[in-house]
């Protein structure tokens, strides 16, 4: 039988300042102030997710860590989420704790890999996840707090503390929060979650751990083939290493802005057409300054439409020893 009582140890504080300073002193936050995770708030989040506190969301066996719904709710409150965001946070935590998402490596690596959260489906508009201009930056509560909630779970539950189990040499500002939605309404393309087996009227979250964030900036190309060559040059400049653990399932993500997307639209190119152009080139000689792009299947090229007008750019999110995992957003009936 599922437990209904919260298991976390209770703490008392003199006032708000004492609470904030204690959280900082104990290393329970990411360096920013938090929202106090009172029992009432945590219970409200669990109710919004339809989950008992002890529901297991996933594990990190190498660290002997088990992540429950209560853990996720506490950190979602702390991150500044609203209760209605919680099903998205739960899906993100489940995706990140999938075996092939490789939590241990992607949160402990010297490279400071970041966890990118991409949201698809109706939940985006229901809770206000930004998909257009500025969607990867500050200014949007849902984006900022959902991405931060996952990172607080990584820190506080999965024990990825900088200098301890988080061994990043420089780390990254994207580790505070990196969440956005696909701009499905501004696109003729099939949404990413539908390509990954979900219905269009379902909501889903994809978590992609990224070692390098680069961009293919191209203001002059108009033909789809030319734009694909710009993306290919960026992929080859960085390269993607294969790994026995992942086999042929390695993934990379291309986030295509509207200035590039409209030329694909005019030419009638789908996401599948982009894959058909790019994938055979991964086995060609990359040239003297190029590196191998170790994507084993064309489905490993994930394509997302997002961003605002003006900048002729496609963001290229290169993986760190993990594959992108998509989990459904489940809300109570």
Given as residue ranges, the uncertain stretches (5+ residues, pLDDT < 50) are: none
Question: Please, how many helices?
Answer: 11
Give me the secondary-structure category: alpha+beta
What gross morphology would you assign? globular
The proportion of residues forming helix, as a percent range, comes to: 25-40%
Structure, briefly:
This protein is α+β, with helices and mostly antiparallel strands and 333 residues long.
What keyword list fits this structure?
9 strands; 333 residues; globular; 11 helices; seven-stranded mixed sheet; alpha+beta; two-stranded antiparallel sheet
Structural write-up:
The chain has about 325 residues and is α+β, with helices and mostly antiparallel strands. It has 11 helices and 9 strands. Strands 3, 4, 5, 6, 7, 8 and 9 form a 7-stranded mixed sheet that branches. A hairpin with a 4-residue loop joins strand 1 (about 55-60) and strand 2 (about 65-70). Helix 3 packs across helix 4 (about 85-95) and helix 4 crosses helix 7. The radius of gyration is 20 Å and the shape is globular. The two termini are about 20 Å apart.
Itemize the secondary structure elements and their pairings.
Layout: H1 16-25, H2 39-49, E1 56-60, E2 65-68, H3 69-79, H4 86-96, H5 103-108, E3 114-120, H6 123-127, H7 141-156, E4 179-181, H8 192-195, E5 204-217, H9 224-238, E6 252-256, H10 258-266, H11 271-278, E7 301-305, E8 313-319, E9 325-328
Parallel strand pairs: 3-4, 6-7
Antiparallel strand pairs: 1-2, 3-5, 5-8, 5-9, 6-8
């Amino acid at each position: 039988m599922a437990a209904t009582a919260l298991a976390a140890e209770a703490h008392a504080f003199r006032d708000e300042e004492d609470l904030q300073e204690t959280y900082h002193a104990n290393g329970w936050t990411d360096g920013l102030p938090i929202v106090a995770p009172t029992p009432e708030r945590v219970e409200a989040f669990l109710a919004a997710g339809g989950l008992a506190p002890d529901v297991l969301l996933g594990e990190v066996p190498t660290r002997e860590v088990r992540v429950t719904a209560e853990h996720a709710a506490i950190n979602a409150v702390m991150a500044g989420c609203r209760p209605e965001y919680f099903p998205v946070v739960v899906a993100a935590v489940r995706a990140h704790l999938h075996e092939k998402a490789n939590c241990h490596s992607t949160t402990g690596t010297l490279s400071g890999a970041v966890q990118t959260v991409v949201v698809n489906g109706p939940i985006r508009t229901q809770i206000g996840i930004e998909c257009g201009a500025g969607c990867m930056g500050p200014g949007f509560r849902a984006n900022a707090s959902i991405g931060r909630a996952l990172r607080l779970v990584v820190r506080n539950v999965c024990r990825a503390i900088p200098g301890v189990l988080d061994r990043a040499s420089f780390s990254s500002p994207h580790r505070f929060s990196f969440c956005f939605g696909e701009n499905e309404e501004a696109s003729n393309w099939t949404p990413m979650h539908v390509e990954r087996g979900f219905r269009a009227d379902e909501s889903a979250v994809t978590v992609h751990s990224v070692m390098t964030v680069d961009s293919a900036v191209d203001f002059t190309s108009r033909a789809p083939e030319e734009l694909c060559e710009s993306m290919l040059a960026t992929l080859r400049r960085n390269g993607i290493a294969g790994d026995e653990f992942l086999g042929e399932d390695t993934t990379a993500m291309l986030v295509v802005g509207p200035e590039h997307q409209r030329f694909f639209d005019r030419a009638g190119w789908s996401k599948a057409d982009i894959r058909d152009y790019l994938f055979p080139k991964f086995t060609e000689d990359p040239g003297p300054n190029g590196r191998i792009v170790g994507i084993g299947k064309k489905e490993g090229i994930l394509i997302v439409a997002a961003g605002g007008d003006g900048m002729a750019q496609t963001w290229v999110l290169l993986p760190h020893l993990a594959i992108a995992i998509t989990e459904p957003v489940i809300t109570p009936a």
